[in-house]
Every structure is written in structure tokens, then in C-alpha cells.
Design goal:
Blueprint lengths: L1 E4 L11 H16 L3 H25 L7 H5 L11 H17 L8 H20 L1 E4 L10 H4 L5 E3 L6 E3 L7 H12 L5 H13 L4 H19 L4 H10 L4 H9 L6 H20 L10 H9 L2
Parallel strand pairs: 1-2
Antiparallel strand pairs: 3-4
Helix pairs in contact: 1-2, 4-9, 5-7, 5-8, 7-8, 8-9, 8-13
């Protein structure tokens, strides 16, 4: 099978290079009383970052991307909305599967990342006939957390750096796979949501299937709750999820802090506009768009 290797060199750095670029002069000033050493480190980090981004871009040109709309027969910008009845029926069916097949999360984040990355690579290759191989490295901290405190994870599309901001329980493999889709060149959120789900839900490993089904239930509940956080938590309690799963469903949507609410107020319209400017439907792609698309696939 044809193979494309995207180096993702920046992902192997001990610290996110973007963090080093931003913080090196300040750290140098605080620790050494001078900014020159920090400026030197900053310049080196910037060079490494740019070199890694260029190398990845050159390699990615040889990759054959999936045209999600063409392959799956759906215009992602014009999906037929599910009815509330269909959503509720889907939730009930998947909750039963999750309860019957529950598996505790006993793997480390890095082990999950390797597993999810391999499955995603295999799934994409089954469609394109080409293995697009990328790094399986995942960070647990980056300064981007301060900019997106409400997010579960993030991917720097230039360097391929992926950060998972907090423990996500049963959802973690899907969140990792979603960010790895960005790393492989699928930058639209609905594409990443859908490909991650389709790859994991058809995996042999139950822990991956469980993550995909959990994400689908989670997003359906958010749509049914119409964005009301209290109603979402009530619906989790009413869903019949076993205790271990219900705990993760509650923890994935905690009550936001004052800081998070303030940042969200500023960032939400900017993110909405950015998504629409790049041919996406907006933030609804994470929830309604994703579940509408998967439902259309039967």
C-alpha cells in the first residue's frame, strides 16, 4: 500500500515550541535578569517550529485526502436535521450498548494515543488506499489552555502539536482521534468529528467503540438540552447510564469558572465566525452537525 510519512518533528519536543517562543524571553528575564539568552532560545525555537511546519506541509502534499461529502454521499453544509424523537431513540439504544459493554479506562493517555492513531490511520487507508502516518505524541499541557479554557483539546495545525487539557474518561480516545484528524490534514471540525467516530466505532477494540458511542450520546444530549447545562446534567441522570459512565458524562461538562465564562463570551463569536469563514456551519458542527451526519449513514 502507498505510504506517506508526515514527520511532525515539533511534536517530539519536550515542550510545545509555541510555548517556548512566547515564554523564553520572560523566563530568561526572571531567572537570569537578562533577556538576551531568552531571545536566543526564542529564535532557535522559532526556527525549529518553522522548519517542522514546512517539512509537514511538503510531506502532506503527497497525501490523498478523503472528500467526506463525496465518499459518504452527504453535503456537510446541508444535512437533514434529526428529529428530537430520533435523537432520543438513538440515545436509548446507545446507552444500552454502553452499559452492556462497559470497559474501565485502564490505559495511559499515551497508550490510548498510539491505539487511536493506528486505528485512524488504518481507517483512512481503507478508503484512500494510502497510509498517512503521523506522530502519536500527545501533550497534557500547553499555554493554549489559557486561551481555550473551555476546550477539551487542541491541535496546532502548523506544527501538528496536540494537547489534551484534562482527563476525559471514556471520551478520551475519541477526543484524541479528533485532534489527530487535524494532524492528518482534516481541518474542519465536522470532518474531524465524523472521521474519528467512523474509525473508532468500527474498531476491534471495545475501548475505542465505547469512546465513539459515548461521544455520540454526549452530543445528542447537548442538542436535546438546547445548550442548557443544567438540563444536560438532568438528562444524563435520566438516561439510565451506569454509574461509572454517568460520572464521566457529568465531568465532561463541568460548571464553568468565572474566568472560563469571561473567555467564552469573547471567544465564542470569534470561533463561530472563523468556522463560517472556512466553509463550516459554525459551532453547531460539533453537536448537531456531527450527529445529523452520523445518523444519515444509518
Amino acid at each position: 500500500m502507498d505510504r506517506v510519512k508526515i514527520p511532525n518533528q515539533a511534536t517530539y519536543s519536550p515542550l510545545a515550541l509555541t510555548d517556548v517562543i512566547m515564554l523564553a524571553p520572560l523566563a530568561s528575564r526572571v531567572l537570569l535578569g537578562a533577556t538576551v539568552p531568552g531571545r536566543i532560545v526564542q529564535a532557535l525555537a522559532l526556527g525549529a517550529y518553522a522548519g517542522s511546519a514546512l517539512s509537514d506541509w511538503l510531506s502532506r502534499r503527497d497525501a490523498r485526502p478523503i472528500d467526506v461529502g463525496e465518499v459518504f454521499g452527504q453535503d456537510l453544509s446541508d444535512l437533514e436535521p434529526m428529529t428530537d424523537e430520533d435523537r432520543q431513540a438513538e440515545v436509548e439504544e446507545l446507552v444500552q450498548k454502553l452499559n452492556d459493554n462497559y470497559e474501565p479506562m485502564n490505559m495511559s493517555r499515551q497508550e490510548l494515543a498510539v491505539l487511536a492513531n493506528e486505528r485512524l490511520t488504518d481507517y483512512i487507508a481503507s478508503i484512500t488506499g494510502q497510509r498517512v502516518e503521523t506522530s502519536a505524541e500527545v501533550r497534557s499541557f500547553a499555554i493554549s489552555k489559557l486561551v481555550f479554557p473551555f476546550s477539551l483539546g487542541a491541535c496546532d495545525i502548523l506544527s501538528g502539536d496536540v494537547t489534551i487539557f484534562r482527563d476525559c474518561g471514556v471520551f478520551e480516545p475519541h477526543i484524541i482521534a479528533h485532534e489527530f484528524c487535524h494532524r492528518k490534514g482534516y481541518y474542519k471540525e465536522l470532518q474531524a468529528q465524523a472521521l474519528a467516530y467512523l474509525a473508532l466505532s468500527t474498531a476491534e477494540e471495545n475501548i475505542l467503540v465505547q469512546a465513539a458511542h459515548s461521544e455520540r450520546v454526549h452530543r445528542n444530549l447537548r442538542v436535546l438540552a438546547e445548550g442548557d447545562l443544567d438540563r444536560y446534567h438532568e438528562m444524563v441522570d435520566e438516561s439510565g447510564l451506569r454509574e461509572e459512565l454517568a460520572r464521566d458524562f457529568h465531568e465532561i461538562r463541568p460548571k464553568p469558572s468565572m474566568y472560563e465564562r469571561g473567555v467564552w463570551t469573547i471567544m465564542k463569536p470569534l470561533m463561530e465566525e472563523r468556522m463560517k469563514m472556512t466553509g463550516q456551519n459554525g459551532l453547531s458542527d460539533y453537536d448537531a452537525g456531527f450527529t445529523d451526519f452520523i445518523h444519515s449513514q444509518g
